[in-house]
Write a structure and sequence with these properties.
The protein is α/β, with parallel strands linked by helices and 280 residues long. The chain has helices at residues 10-20, 59-74, 103-113, 142-149, 165-175, 217-228, 247-250, 273-279, and strands at 2-5, 23-25, 27-31, 37-41, 49-53, 79-84, 117-121, 136-139, 156-159, 179-181, 183-188, 191-195, 205-213, 233-241, 256-260, 268-270. Bound molecules: ribose-5-phosphate.
């Protein structure tokens, strides 16, 4: 088996090859003067099973992924498994107003058409999986987060909103810590209002856990309430750390920020490679 990774996931691709005993296959990846992309897979993959690792975020990664998949098909790969650690556009899985696109479907369809199966990781909603039109599986990134968080011995797990309740409850159970769920009202794309309810946190190490940190508004708002209530240490943990705009600044209220390598960045503290390798 070969593992091929696009530019969003060089490190994860190498880690995955090591975990699965596959060979890592490099890709020449460049741009023409007009900005169009060129890719060339560097090994002869004819007759081999190939796993591709690449996000559909940011936008340009989508074209890169499609070119890699097309190159593998053209080269006669026996099977193509596409791993999308962070699926961009998964948050628009339906239309909210007339005239909108189901963006998740627009992205999933061409990827699925060139893949034999597709794996996502803690995708925002399972509904997007059917859009690929081929066998799919969502890998649970929570296990790796929990494994990493055990070292901090948290005294409380906080879900920053109702949407995070289910998987925060699972994490709290495994961390043997109580769960507290906050209420959140989204004011606009960058602003939320959070209610903490009655919570006792004096001196505790508290983990706020979410699937995605984007602008950091959700976590910053919850973190401030917990600090004001006297929490000893506030950790913000997520699977997918986008950290856009001034998220880093907003998140200063937290003592530490921990995210996985589904999006590789400065807050990447743990890898989801073992979970992917197990699923493969
Ligand atoms: C919402 O459904 C998600 O679970 C996250 O809470 C949200 O994407 C976080 O966004 P932000 O960091 O911009 O508040």
């Amino acid at each position: 088996m070969f593992v091929v990774s696009g530019s969003t996931h060089q490190r994860l691709g190498v880690a995955l090859a090591q975990e699965t005993g596959a060979e890592f296959c490099g890709v020449i990846n460049k741009r023409f003067p007009d900005g169009e992309r060129y890719v060339r897979v560097l090994r002869n993959v004819a007759g081999h099973d190939v796993t591709v690792v690449q996000n559909t975020f940011p936008d340009e990664s989508i074209v890169e992924l499609l070119l890699i998949l097309e190159a593998l098909r053209e080269s006669g790969a026996k099977s193509i498994t596409t791993i999308i650690p962070y699926m961009g556009y998964a948050r628009q899985e339906r239309t909210f107003q007339r005239g909108e696109a189901i963006s998740a479907r627009a992205v999933a369809r061409p990827v699925g058409a060139l893949s034999d199966r597709v794996f996502t990781v803690s995708v925002h909603t399972d509904e997007v999986l059917s859009f690929f039109g081929c066998p799919t599986q969502d890998i649970d990134g929570l296990q790796e987060a929990v494994r990493y968080l055990k070292g901090f011995k948290p005294g409380l797990v906080v879900a920053p909103d109702e949407g995070a309740r289910e998987w925060c409850a699972r994490a709290a159970k495994e961390l043997k810590a109580p769960l507290h769920v906050m209420s959140k009202v989204r004011v606009d794309d960058r602003t939320v209002e959070t209610g903490s309810g009655k919570v006792t946190v004096k001196g505790l190490t508290v983990v706020i856990l979410d699937d995605i940190i984007s602008t950091g508004g959700t976590i910053a708002s919850a973190g401030r309430l917990l600090k004001d209530a006297g929490a000893g240490q506030v950790l913000a943990a997520c699977t997918h750390g986008l950290f856009i705009e001034d998220a880093a600044n907003r998140l200063r209220v937290c003592d530490d920020i921990l995210s996985s390598d589904t999006l590789e960045g400065v807050y990447t503290r743990y890898s989801i490679a073992p979970a992917i390798a197990a699923a493969l």
